[in-house]
Design a protein that fits this description.
The protein has a single domain, classed as Up-down Bundle (Hypothetical Protein Ta1238, Chain: A), CATH 1.20.1200.10. Helices cover about 55% and strands about 5% of the residues. It has five helices and two strands. It has a two-stranded antiparallel ribbon. Strand 1 and strand 2 form a beta hairpin. Helix 1 packs antiparallel against helix 2 and helix 1 runs antiparallel to helix 4. The longest helix has 26 residues. The protein is elongated, with a radius of gyration of 18 Å. It starts with 11 loop residues before the first strand and ends in a 23-residue tail after the last helix. The C terminus is likely disordered. One of its GO terms (molecular function) is corrinoid adenosyltransferase activity. It comes from Priestia koreensis. Pathway: Cofactor biosynthesis; adenosylcobalamin biosynthesis; adenosylcobalamin from cob(II)yrinate a,c-diamide: step 2/7.
C-alpha cells in the first residue's frame, strides 16, 4: 500500500466534504491537535508504574482524534463525536489529581520528572490548539464541545504533571519572582 497519493502536491488537502488549501485554519487546528496527540504518546511511554494515568492518556489520544475529526468537515451537516461527558470526565480527573498533589501558592516552572516535563509540553500545545480552534470558530461553525474539551485538557495536563511529580517525590519548582497567585485550599487554574 502506498501512503502517498500526490493529491496534495498543489497545496490542497481533503476535508470531509470538500478540498481546502493546506494553510486553512481548520487544517492548522487539527494538525496541531495531531501534534499534541504525538506528544501525549511520548508521555505515555515515560509513565513507568503509573498504568492508570497511562490508560487515561491512551483514551485522551482517541479523544484527540475525535476533536480533529469534528474539525475536519467542510460541510456543517454531520454528527459530532466530542461531547460534554468527555469534558466532565476530564474535570473528574483534574479534581482528583489536584487533591493528591501538594497545594501551591505561586506559578511553577514546567519540569520535574521526564513524564511530568512531557505533560507540561502537552499542556502548552493544548493551549495553542485551543487558540487555533477559537480562530476556526470565528470563520466556521464548529462543535463548541471541542473548545471546551481542549480548555479542560490543558488543565488536565497541568494536574497530571503535578501528580506525577508528587508520586515520584519530586517537588514542583516555584517561579521565584511570582507573587502568591493561588490561595491555599483553592484549586489552581493553569
Amino acid at each position: 500500500m502506498n501512503i502517498y497519493t500526490k493529491t496534495g502536491d498543489k497545496g490542497q488537502t481533503s476535508l470531509i466534504g470538500g478540498r481546502v488549501y493546506k494553510d486553512d485554519v481548520r487544517v492548522d487546528a487539527y494538525g496541531s491537535i495531531d501534534e499534541l496527540n504525538s506528544f501525549v504518546g511520548q508521555a505515555v511511554q515515560q509513565l513507568a508504574n503509573q498504568n492508570e494515568l497511562a490508560e487515561e492518556l491512551l483514551n485522551i489520544q482517541h479523544e484527540l482524534f475525535d476533536c480533529g475529526s469534528d474539525l475536519a468537515f467542510a460541510r456543517e451537516d454531520h454528527p459530532y463525536k466530542v461531547n460534554e461527558d468527555m469534558v466532565k470526565a476530564l474535570e473528574k480527573s483534574i479534581d482528583a489529581y489536584m487533591k493528591e498533589a501538594p497545594e501551591i501558592e505561586r506559578f511553577i516552572l514546567p519540569g520535574g520528572t521526564g513524564a511530568a516535563a512531557s505533560l507540561h509540553i502537552c499542556r502548552t500545545i493544548a493551549r495553542r490548539c485551543e487558540r487555533l480552534v477559537v480562530t476556526v470558530q470565528k470563520e466556521h461553525k464548529i462543535n463548541e464541545q471541542v473548545l471546551h474539551y481542549l480548555n479542560r485538557l490543558s488543565d488536565y495536563f497541568f494536574a497530571a504533571a503535578r501528580v506525577v511529580n508528587a508520586r515520584e517525590g519530586v517537588k514542583d519548582v516555584e517561579y521565584i519572582r511570582s507573587a502568591k497567585v493561588f490561595r491555599t485550599g483553592k484549586k489552581a487554574d493553569a
